[in-house]
Amino acid sequence: MKEWDCMLPFRFIHAADLHLDTPFSGMSGVPEQLRQYLQGSTFAALGGLVDLAISEEVDFIVISGDVYDASESSLRAQLRLREAWERLGQHGIPVYVIHGNHDPLNSRRLRLAHPPHVTIFGAKVESINATRRSDGETVAVVSGISYPSAAVMENTSLQFRRDLASKLYHIGLLHANVDGQEGHDAYSPCSLRDLQNTGYDYWALGHIHKRQVLSQSPWIIYPGNIQGRSLKETGPKGCYVVDVGENGEANPIFHELDHVRWSEIEISIERLLTEEDWKEAVEEQIEELRENSVGRLQVVRITFTGRGPLHSLLQSGRESGELLQELRRRENVRLQGSENGVGSLGSIVWLAGVKVATGMDIDTSTLLQEDSFLGELFRLSARAEGDIELLDSIVESALAPLMDNSTLRGLLKEEGANSNTKLELLRRAQELASSLLVEVDSRGGMGQ
Amino acid sequence: MRLEKLQVSGFGHLHGVDVELQGPVTVLYGPNEAGKSTLLGFVRAILFGIPSRASGHLRYEPTQGSIHGGMLTIEGEDGALWSIERYAGHADGRALSGTRGDRLRITKSDLDGRLQELTQQEMQRELLGGMSKEMFKQLFAVSLSELQEVSALQSEEMSRFLFHAGIGGGAAVLRGEKKLAQEMDKLYKPRGRNQEMAQMLQSLDRLRQETDAAKALLPRYNEVLVELEEVEAKRAKCTLERTLSLHEANKLEKAAEIRTEWFKREALLTELGALPLHRGFPEQGLIRWETLQGEKERLLLEIQETNRRCDVLHSEMASLILNQDILDHSGELNMLAGLMPGYESRMKQIAELESEALTLRGQLAQCLRSIDPVWRVEDLHNFAGTVSERENVRRYISRFAEYDKVMERLHTERFKQEREITALKSAYTSAVSRMEESKLNGLHQFDVLIPQDRAEIRSLWSETKLELDRWREISMSKLLDSRATAAEALTQDRMRSLYYRLLGGGAVLTVILPAGLWMTTGELWIAAIGGGFMILFDLFLWLGFKSGRTKGKNSLRRAGHTGNVSPVEARLSTLLSKLIRHPLTAAGKDMSSVSSIDPEDWELEERQLRQLMEGWYLWDQRHEVLEAEVLNCRSRATAAIDELQNLERELSRREAAFDDLVQEWESWLSERKLPRDLSPEAALEVFRLTEQGGELLSRIEGLSYKISGMQKENEDFKERCRSLRETPEGAARTSVISQLQKMLLELEAQLEIKSRRDILAIQLPPLEEERDRLEDRLDRVLTLEHNLLTEAHAEEGEDYLRRGVIAARRETLEKEVRQCDLVMFGGLDDERKQQLELLLHNHTGEELSRQVKEARETAEETERNWQNLQEQRGRLLQEQDSLEARCKQEDLSQRFAENKAALSESIDNYAVMAVCNELISRVRRIYEEERQPEVLRMASGYFAEMTGGVYRRIVLKMGTQELMAEHREHGAIESTYLSRGSAEQLYLAMRLALSEAVSGHAKLPILLDDLFVNFDASRMGGAISVLKEVSNRHQIIMMTCHKHVVDEIMAKIPGSQIVQL
């Protein structure tokens, strides 16, 4: 349908959601050195991106929004970004950037004008001819649109339209939530079909932090962010190096850029009988992670699941807290070691936290039938699970004291007040109650 | 059950009081101290035992010290009549605990009239339905004090009536809740400040503030950037202004500064204008003029000098005169003077050479004489002493020598051969004689043997041996020792004689050989070695001889047996007969006799035979050797004789050849006129002498040739001398040299004069030339002078000089003006120069200085401004740097995030606990409200009735077991917060409800001791109407001291019995 015989091969990098200098969330008790490392990791990833661009000799870079968090208002992010631009400029690598919901055009920015090789797209779709560095031949049309303000609810993809006369490779830069993916704000909502209809060859998307290839013809790709910063962003992070051949076929290859890798592991307590078993299981998991490390610092959260005799022990939180402290202490020793040149940061597995989602070793179905206080409680929570209003009223009245404080209120809101988190809360509360009541039961012998 | 009758024997202050109780409700009405409460105590005591002394007043000790106790008459549920009689034991006051010390009689007479005595326990079980004393006291016999004892309701015993079976006492729930509350409180309390979360919040707020401050970095940075831009713009403008004002000020200052100079220049310009204007006075005209004049003077003087010198030279040259004739021959004279020494030396040489020639001729004559007296010089010339001749002579010499050598060799050979022949002949004869001797010896020794032929003997013997072996196999035979010994001794003797001979020979050799060797070689050591060897040989022989003797001794025995097998023997005997001539006769000498039947003889014979044959074999071998030796000697002798004859022939041939050679030599000598007897060696000597002679001859010839050459040269020289000047007086031969010398002297004098004249001639032309040159230069100077005059437009020298002075003055002035210009406007462009001149023209001194001041001030002002801006810019740049540095260090956002995370974690924990707490409280509410126990419901009913509906119901809070009254309007109120009356009503309602629940089948009577004192009228009415309802099931006995109570009861319960105490 298209004539590709006049295509010139070229190579570019597609990255998005750099979120420079945004802090790592969901971690506490971080020692100084680690904090510094974490803080530098987004910049390190950016540095890696620049290095990659230089070493791969790409013809240009496209960045699909959220380069930094305007809310963080980090001068450092801006200055470092500038340094990165300059380095790319020294190597003559052009950069095409759009702004996303986190760094909209109306946000605070460094007042300095961008260097000429950095192209920032405006609030309307613009198209620019990109050239090949080797001979200055025009090889592609890069189109993009930036967010004028933080919330864009309009389907901006409709503004993109391929110039049918042009036989050049068309690359669209868009910061959008395609097909309304959950867990992300539905900014610039559009559908896959919308994108496919534009006639563009490559859609360089941003906004969703999880890497995904939505379509191969045309290519519609979320490269994900370049550095995971919370437990929601686990696994390798990086960018795509895209080779476009003479036949116009693109070959995107993922390159890891992250310096800190997040992961979450689950440990079931079902088969664990003693505290020692449990500690061993945890240490085993950590060592396994360490062995499989790929030279990156790893941040990990352990979730204990399953029903078992250790539930009550864990439920009190003291033992897991102690274990957490101990494991962190060990990693800290390693950290010191790596600072002194012994070992590397890559061997560190930092425990961000421990989540206890275990259950009492009891049969809930019989409990639900039982004419007892706990039975009644389980029946109540079962009712609440099905009845959102009841659930809301329970959670609301429970958390009412917290609502007095504006900060806490804000945090609670951030945590997300959706039914899932509430349900989760309810279930955990139910498990807590069962451990509390049964514990007393087994001690006092006052049950039925 | 109902109480029928109380008969108090003695209880407190009551004595012999009988109270009959009728109907469901009885009111005991009486004033204070009437004994109402005592009666209550009495009922308790009779039913459950009189309290011990420890109980104090409750024991109700009789005041008069009479009998302590009484009797109760009770009608049971089943209609049986019970009488319980109880008295405190031991009135003497001995303390007895419990009821054991009481005197107790319990009788039950049922409807059928059966009387039965029962124990306390049986009574309690049957009559009271197992009611305990405590419960009875709390629920059935209630006084005001007991009513207010809330704890009674919390006793374990009662709780099971109060609460729902499913939750026990609710203590677990309570504990759980308490624990949760503790944990939650640790984490968070609204408005608390020390809880974990509160502290986290505080630090978070602090961090937030700091973070906000950090967030201000970016806007501040932007501001700095804006400010920087502004400042930069201002600074650019200011810089421009600054340069302008500085320029202006400088200009004015300059003007003020150069004012004096300017005036000076003006003056100079005026003077310059006054000077007459002469055109084109030559540059440096005056100096040049003076130089020319000086030059002119000098040249004139020099010309005169030169002329004088020329004249002097001319006169000198004229005074010198030359002799041209001598000078013409000067070349030839010089040559002859050069040849003169050669002439003289040749004269000397000629004399020397002539004497030498004389000597050589003498030597030559001597040489000829030594060859041969007849030889002359011609012979010498004729003798060809060529190399081939010499070779011939040498060949003759060698041939003679060769002949001598061959002859000598042949003679020695012949001599040797002759000696050898004689030796061989003697050896042959001795060998023949040895062989003959051996042959004779053999024949003599072995004459026993028949065959003469040796081969035959051998074959026969080998056959015989075969047979002998065979024979020995069959039979054992013996040989006779003695025979054998004899035979052996014989051989031994021979051996010994041989050795003796050898030893003797050896000894002789031992002596002779070394001596011989010494003599032949002349070397003592070889002789010694030879002697040594011989001695060793002798020694060996001697040892051999000795061992031979011992061996001989050892082998002196032999034994043999002859077999007796006849066929073999027969064969043997035939063979032997063939071999040996006379066996029996021979036995005496060589062999033992052989008898065919005696094996021993056979043996002996065989041995002898063998010995004989061995001896024969030995001899045979030796004989063969001797034969061969004879043959050998003979052949060698004949060969030697042949060779001798050959030698003789060779000798005669050689002698004939030698005679020819002598002839040849003699003819050769005569050919060369030499004496015939000359040997070839002497001939060689002649060759040497002729050579010598030849050499001498040639030298003589060379000398005479040389002498003649020299004489000729001398003649030539003389001739030339003579031809030079044919002087008449120079006839004498000696004068040739002296004349020549005189002429040479003359020539020398002439040459000197000539050279002097030449020098003068050379000096003259340069002088003349110099004179011409000077004249030319003078012309040139005059021309230049004229030129100067024309150029200066001057008529003559003086006019020229005047003009020159004026021109110099003008030049000075102009120079000064230029200097002024330079001082004033040095380095300035035309524009500024004009500006300055304009200024100086237009303004006075004061005006100028004023303007300078003003301009200076403006300049300073702008300078200050500029400095300010510069500083501002510096500050901003510094701030920019510091902002960049700060932002690179801060880690607030991360710390904020961490604190937030920690807080979120806590919130999460708290939330779980809070939700858990909420769940528990909700479930508890369900329990408290919806699943209320029967007792509470009933009590609620009573309570509502008592309060006329003000309180709707009673709620029991789980865990705390605290009673709460739910007010119609104000909701639940804890009992402790209720008014005294309401609380009492609440407790009463509870007790009534509980007594209902507890009673079961035994409906116990309820005794209420003046409980309505705190009730208002309506509440009391309500209470009474409740009691009325209760009285349907229980007997009710009320004590009161209030008339209105009695009245009220009477009104509400018409059938009630009033007992006045």
From TrEMBL, chain B:
Pfam families: AAA_27
This protein's UniProt keywords: Coiled coil, Membrane, Transmembrane, Transmembrane helix
Coiled-coil regions listed in the entry: 289-316, 630-664, 707-757, 845-886
Domain YhaN AAA: 1-214
Membrane-spanning ranges: 498-518, 524-545
Keyword Coiled coil tagged: yes
InterPro entries: P-loop_NTPase (IPR027417), YhaN_AAA (IPR038734)
Origin superkingdom: Bacteria
PANTHER family given in the database record: DOUBLE-STRAND BREAK REPAIR RAD50 ATPASE, PUTATIVE-RELATED
Name of the protein this chain belongs to: YhaN AAA domain-containing protein
Organism of this sequence: Paenibacillus anaericanus
